[in-house]
Specification:
By secondary structure, the chain is α/β, with parallel strands linked by helices. The chain has one domain: Response regulator (Rossmann fold), CATH 3.40.50. Helices cover 49% and strands 16% of the residues. The protein has a 5-stranded parallel β-sheet. Helix 4 packs across helix 5. The protein is globular, with a radius of gyration of 15 Å. It starts with a strand and ends in a 6-residue tail after the last helix. InterPro entries: Bact_response_regulator, CheY-like_superfamily, Sig_transdc_resp-reg_receiver. Pfam families: Response_reg (PF00072). This is Response regulatory domain-containing protein.
Length: 160
């Protein structure tokens, strides 16, 4: 049986390699590959465009950093949603967290938004839930989390 393919997009080579290794070793359920730029990610998505006659991309999930040279992760997310209509799950994994980034990420229907440093076990939990069919629930939960963040951005004194 084919394992779901996860694409990790992060220009930090060591972190990218650690995430890929963590996913591949986690429970042998997933296979992860790397891209170190948005352009490389688009090339990987194109390369895996049709998965063994299934009519969908072999890459089923993307772990996506925001801050990268050239096209950033939010721009890649927008391109991914325009070009690949099928449901490819996306989790943002970034050191950047502000209202604008949250707005763009939730507009791109991400299943989660993790802030670095992160717990690799949390990423595996996200993958497990996604591949168990909880994508819609996860998108709603992320949107609700964004609404809570919005309140803190609007009223920073209340978050202390």
């Amino acid at each position: 049986m084919l394992k779901p393919l996860v694409l990790v997009v992060d220009d930090e080579v060591d972190l990218n390699n650690d995430i890929v290794e963590s996913i591949n070793k986690s429970n042998k359920k997933y296979e992860a590959i790397s891209a170190y730029s948005a352009e490389e990610a688009l090339s990987s998505l194109e390369k895996h465009k049709v998965c063994f006659g299934l009519g969908r991309n072999c890459i089923r999930f993307v772990v996506l950093d925001i801050k990268m040279p050239g096209m950033n992760g939010l721009e890649l997310l927008e391109t991914l949603r325009e070009k690949y209509k099928e449901n490819i799950g996306v989790v943002m994994l970034t050191a950047w967290e502000d209202k604008e980034k949250w707005d763009k990420a939730t507009a791109g229907f991400v299943v989660n938004y993790l802030v670095k440093p992160f717990d690799p076990a949390k990423l595996i939990e996200i993958l497990d839930r996604f591949f168990e069919g909880e994508e819609e629930r996860m998108i709603v939960e992320t949107f609700e989390k964004h609404i809570e963040k919005d309140k803190k951005y609007e009223n920073p004194a209340s978050s202390s």
